[in-house]
Design brief:
This protein is α/β, with parallel strands linked by helices. The strands form 2 sheets. It has a 5-stranded mixed sheet. A 4-stranded parallel sheet has the order 4-3-2-5, with helices on both faces. The chain is globular, with a radius of gyration of 23 Å. A hairpin with a 3-residue loop joins strand 6 (409-413) and strand 7. The protein is built from 20 helices and 9 strands. It folds into 2 domains: 39-232 and 360-476, no CATH class; 240-355, no CATH class. It has helices at 2-6, 16-21, 40-52, 54-70, 84-96, 110-122, 152-172, 188-191, 195-212, 223-227, 238-249, 252-265, 268-271, 290-296, 301-316, 321-327, 333-357, 363-372, 423-426, 467-473; strands at 35-38, 127-132, 176-182, 218-222, 375-378, 409-413, 417-421, 431-436, 459-462. Helix 11 (238-249) crosses helix 17.
């Protein structure tokens, strides 16, 4: 099991964990960024600008695949190139061997991937790429993001996926789609994602995809719809015993290696909800201490976020605990919350690892084939060093590295650049938050209208810039 863990990145993360370890700060307070407001027409202009260049970028990606394949010496990387169907399969592989597309572009087992693609093409059916991606955004007490909903970072990632799909479709000259398996239900036992929030996030991403591309090209599907009974959990039937078996072999060493990252990924707002009716009670059988329950009564969201932030920062960067003890001015609520969060996060990490290990790398593909007879090609957002035939996609571009949209906010800079950072990291930048303003007390937007009532920003922009111009031009950034 340790070998399996070392061969794969099993949990997505931001750079926040590293930043906290490197003494970024205690974050007893988070400084609010200056605010810029946009209206519906401006949002429509931005979305239109991002949509406009997609065909051109897809064609460029397809041409690049054709040209790089043609430049290879005979017998290099691929086989049977004298056959048009094998050549077409190799051209698709070249899309994923592009270092702008895949994290493992230089390590792909091209021959194995070519054989899989050729087999899919031979079926003469609609081809679906399949990708597992996405818990809702996590706040982590305001350290990571400022809300749970899809924003500009998600639109950037979805746009890249649509461009890949279009490039492949141009090469095979037949319809190609992508099924995105969403993860809220898959890891509920570990992360406690609020089901309603997960459903809303998936619906928002679907709306973004259908606005940027042809409706249904990208289809967001809950993992539990295919591997379970559609409920919030996928640990049912035969998977229950596999889950117990996996739990038994997860070691403390394995937990320690992923503890900080899982700590930042848990839906703490679900466990500390101000309304007891909205709260997930006794995670892993661990009761929220009565003193915390009493403290939460009469508090607001800001106070709740601050308590969550205090525990997270102190566990990742223990030298900051003294700052938080002083900040709470002798209240014992901090120490009690710290103990609760540590206990829950430890067990969550153990269960997260076990949930990952019960799934073989091809289970999602076999599930789709059994459920729909789908002609699928597997992609991933995490590198699987033991599966070199599975392309690992840069959803946020090469500059985004291993980051995923749900863990970061987009900050658009001058000089055609976008950075993806947590809110804590953005504290170091001279940037303003872009909010959607109400019109006649209503939030009627072509897209992203869900952000306005939640007072969640669309993105951030470098201070002193023409916001609309900057955001429109950002659609061309790769």
């Amino acid at each position: 099991m340790n070998d399996a863990l070392s061969e794969r990145e099993i949990v997505s993360e931001s750079n926040l964990h590293k930043a906290l370890i490197s003494n970024l700060g205690s974050f007893c307070t988070l400084e609010a960024r200056p605010a810029i407001n946009m209206g519906p027409q401006e949002v429509e202009q931005v979305v239109g600008a991002w949509r406009a260049g997609m065909d051109r970028q897809a064609s460029r990606l397809a041409r690049s695949a054709i040209n790089t394949l043609a430049a290879l010496p005979v017998g290099c990387l691929y086989e049977c190139l004298g056959d048009k169907s094998w050549q077409a399969a190799a051209q698709i592989c070249e899309v994923f061997r592009n270092p702008q597309v895949s994290k493992n572009a230089g390590r792909l087992d091209t021959r194995a991937l070519q054989r899989k693609v050729h087999e899919a093409l031979a079926r003469d059916e609609h081809i679906n790429l399949v990708l597992g991606w996405g818990q809702p955004k996590r706040s982590a007490g305001g350290l990571k993001t400022l809300g749970s909903f899809a924003d500009l970072a998600e639109m950037y990632a979805i746009r890249r996926l649509l461009i890949i799909v279009r490039a492949v479709s141009q090469l095979v000259r037949r319809p190609v789609g992508m099924i995105v398996l969403t993860g809220s239900s898959r890891f509920f036992e570990a992360l406690f994602t609020r089901p309603n929030v997960g459903q809303a996030y998936d619906a928002q991403r679907q709306m973004i995809a259908d606005t940027l591309g042809r409706k249904g090209t990208l289809s967001f599907r809950p993992y539990s719809d295919l591997s379970g009974d559609g409920s919030r959990s996928v640990v049912i039937d035969a998977r229950e015993q596999r889950f117990r078996d996996s739990l038994a072999v997860v070691t403390d060493e394995m937990i320690l290696s992923k503890f900080g990252t899982v700590l930042l990924n848990i839906d703490w707002e679900h466990l500390f909800a101000l309304d007891p009716m909205q709260r997930h009670h006794a995670p892993h059988g661990i009761q929220l201490p009565p003193s915390i329950e009493a403290w939460l009564r009469g508090r607001d969201e800001t106070a709740c976020s601050r308590l969550i932030r205090a525990a997270i920062v102190s566990l990742i960067s223990p030298e900051r605990q003294s700052d938080w003890i002083a900040s709470f001015e002798g209240e014992d609520v901090f120490e009690v919350a710290l103990s609760f969060v540590q206990s829950v996060a430890w067990e969550s990490t153990r269960k997260y690892i076990a949930l990952h290990l019960i799934d073989s790398s091809d289970e999602a593909t076999s599930i789709l084939n059994a459920a729909q007879g789908a002609n699928v090609l597997r992609l991933t957002v995490h590198q699987k060093r033991d599966r070199r035939d599975v392309p690992a996609i840069f959803t946020l571009g090469p500059g985004g590295g291993n980051l995923l949209a749900q863990h970061v906010l987009a900050c658009v800079l001058k000089r055609d650049a976008i950075v993806f950072e947590s809110y804590a990291e953005l504290q170091q930048r001279d940037a303003a938050a872009v909010y959607l303003r109400p019109v006649n007390n209503q939030f009627v937007y072509p897209l992203f209208g869900w952000l306005a009532p939640a007072q969640q920003p669309l993105c951030f922009v470098e201070a002193g810039c023409d916001t609309l111009k900057l955001l429109c031009e950002a659609g061309g950034v790769q």
